[in-house]
TrEMBL record:
<keyword id="KW-1278">Translocase</keyword>
<dbReference type="Pfam" id="PF02233">
    <property type="entry name" value="PNTB"/>
</dbReference>
<protein>
    <recommendedName>
        <fullName>NAD(P) transhydrogenase subunit beta</fullName>
        <ecNumber>7.1.1.1</ecNumber>
    </recommendedName>
</protein>
<feature type="transmembrane region" description="Helical">
    <location>
        <begin position="57"/>
        <end position="74"/>
    </location>
</feature>
<feature type="transmembrane region" description="Helical">
    <location>
        <begin position="124"/>
        <end position="148"/>
    </location>
</feature>
<comment type="similarity">
    <text>Belongs to the PNT beta subunit family.</text>
</comment>
<keyword id="KW-0472">Membrane</keyword>
<feature type="transmembrane region" description="Helical">
    <location>
        <begin position="169"/>
        <end position="188"/>
    </location>
</feature>
<feature type="domain" description="NADP transhydrogenase beta-like">
    <location>
        <begin position="8"/>
        <end position="469"/>
    </location>
</feature>
<dbReference type="InterPro" id="IPR034300">
    <property type="entry name" value="PNTB-like"/>
</dbReference>
<feature type="transmembrane region" description="Helical">
    <location>
        <begin position="6"/>
        <end position="25"/>
    </location>
</feature>
<keyword id="KW-0812">Transmembrane</keyword>
<keyword id="KW-1003">Cell membrane</keyword>
<dbReference type="InterPro" id="IPR012136">
    <property type="entry name" value="NADH_DH_b"/>
</dbReference>
<feature type="transmembrane region" description="Helical">
    <location>
        <begin position="32"/>
        <end position="51"/>
    </location>
</feature>
<dbReference type="GO" id="GO:0005886">
    <property type="term" value="C:plasma membrane"/>
</dbReference>
<dbReference type="InterPro" id="IPR029035">
    <property type="entry name" value="DHS-like_NAD/FAD-binding_dom"/>
</dbReference>
Length: 474
């Protein structure tokens, strides 16, 4: 039977890797998700077979039912707008589960005073369990804060204690590690007291809160990716403690892929991961630097749907820059309809996708794909940036921060050095906005007051539909 279990695990791992490869492009992403899900089903089946004699089947079945009931409805009903929040929440639940598994292993082994698997050294179980607890709890509470910020229950700006923030984080980390050492010493002398492990869990939980609260909203996509990587590493550590091969391999895959993605996103923002974790980006409030910039901004030029339609009708090339505003307004279908009308007039329409546009990687790709926008029309930043100088009209829909020329021109800007879309090189720019409020980073955008920029105020979906109606009349 052991050979069967390990054979199923090998099949599951192959499906995990093949599914992950499918996530490399939007054309194969859906298939990749389905393949990876099939791999997880195989891994669960293998685990159930391996514990067929020792498992409490009533609890196992109850857990599966509860998970299905709680997991499927929100996944099916959630709007694409709220997908980043759902990802953050589901990732946090994974980290919290790992921490509870490690805690349960501690209780099961009477404070690690003995283990049911004599082939696994007790010290290895202790180290793996303490590591899983620290990282899992940190990931859970950090993901909860990320969810609350993305859902705008908490302010998206930095919430910091100032100069004492980083020293306090360091103290919490040292307390968690010291308590973990106490668990190890106690286990070597006949079983660690429960309160040592409780201190590990509590310190790591508070650390998860204090690490993510000071991080500004503009960095949240990177934070979600980093927390996802940490959850994977904690799952791998828990797998070592439980001697579960599936958890080890799956956790390492998630940890490695999440780390690579986090690094790529940090580079896309020209920021180091330690700088992001230290917080501060997007920390300004309405009365801070962002507000001062707004007061110095020049006058903006409003436009109408009729004027915008005329500009678009006589253009040779139009680039659409989607951002979170497009997601909020659910304007992707209206944008697709407008693009079809322009293409019927011989206008070439492309879509410029910034790596961190929206609230998570691939957010804009998913939205546009939902409206059947061709994958060939979606261009990554490096592929589209040279096109802006040859573009007659660029339409910006809610992409405040990733089009901000201050990142290139203002050394004093918090986003200086961050690669942006070269929208300001277009001959004409039309920005669709509800109001003059700043983006998620809380930073004013001088693009809005540029002489070649006009603003069309209102709901993005309604504004695009109005432009389409005016275009029909031309």
């Amino acid at each position: 039977m052991t050979a069967l279990v390990y054979g199923l695990y090998v099949i599951a791992f192959a499906l995990f890797i093949y599914g992950l490869m499918g996530l490399a492009g939007p054309r194969t992403a859906v298939r990749g998700n389905l393949v990876a899900a099939a791999g997880m089903a195989v891994a669960v089946a293998a685990t159930l077979i391996s514990i067929r004699e020792t498992g409490n089947w009533i609890l196992i079945i109850a857990g599966l039912v509860v998970g299905i009931v709680l997991g499927i409805p929100p996944a099916r009903r959630v709007k694409v707008t709220a997908m980043p929040q759902l990802v953050a929440l589901f990732n946090g639940l994974g980290g919290g589960t790992v921490a509870l598994i490690a805690f349960a292993e501690f209780l099961e082994s009477d404070g690690f005073s003995h283990t049911g698997d004599s082939a696994t050294p007790v010290l290895a179980i202790i180290i793996a369990s303490v590591f899983a607890t620290i990282i899992g709890a940190l990931s859970f509470w950090g993901s909860v804060v990320a969810f609350l910020k993305l859902q705008e229950i908490l302010p998206g700006r930095s919430i910091s204690l100032g100069a004492v923030q980083q020293p306090m984080n360091l103290v919490l980390l040292l307390v968690a590690i010291a308590a973990g050492v106490g668990v190890g010493i106690g286990s070597a002398t006949g079983g660690a007291p429960l309160w040592w492990f409780v201190i590990v869990l509590a310190a790591a939980s508070v650390l998860g809160l204090t690490v993510v609260l000071p991080i500004g909203g503009a960095d949240m996509p990177v934070v979600i990716s980093l927390l996802n990587a940490l959850t994977g590493l904690s799952a791998a550590a828990a797998g070592l403690a439980l001697n579960n091969v599936a958890m080890i391999v799956a956790g390492m895959i998630v940890g490695a892929s999440g780390t690579i993605l986090t690094n790529l996103m940090a580079k896309a923002m020209n920021r180091s991961i330690p700088a992001i974790v230290a917080g501060g980006f997007g920390a300004s409030s309405a009365g801070g630097p962002a507000g001062a910039l707004a007061s110095e901004r020049g006058p903006v030029k409003a436009t109408s749907a009729a004027d915008a339609a005329i500009q678009l009708a006589y253009a040779n090339q139009v680039i659409v820059v989607p951002g979170y505003g497009l997601a909020v307004a659910q304007a992707q279908h209206a944008v697709k309809d407008l693009a079809k009308m322009l293409e019927a007039r011989g206008v070439e329409v492309k879509y410029a996708i910034h790596p961190v546009a929206g609230r998570m990687p691939g957010h804009m790709n998913v939205l546009l794909a939902e409206a059947d926008v061709s994958y060939d029309a979606m261009k990554e930043m490096d592929d589209i940036n040279d096109e802006f100088a040859r573009t007659d009209v660029t339409i910006v829909i809610g992409a405040n921060d990733v089009t901000n020329p201050a990142a290139r021109n203002d050394p004093g800007s918090p986003i200086h050095g961050m690669p942006i879309l070269n929208v300001d090189q277009s001959k004409s720019v039309i920005v669709l906005k509800r109001s003059m409020s700043s983006g998620f980073a809380g930073i004013d955008n001088p693009l809005f007051s540029a002489p070649f920029t006009s603003l069309l105020f209102g709901d993005a979906k309604a504004s695009v539909a109005s432009i389409s109606e005016e275009l029909k009349a031309l």
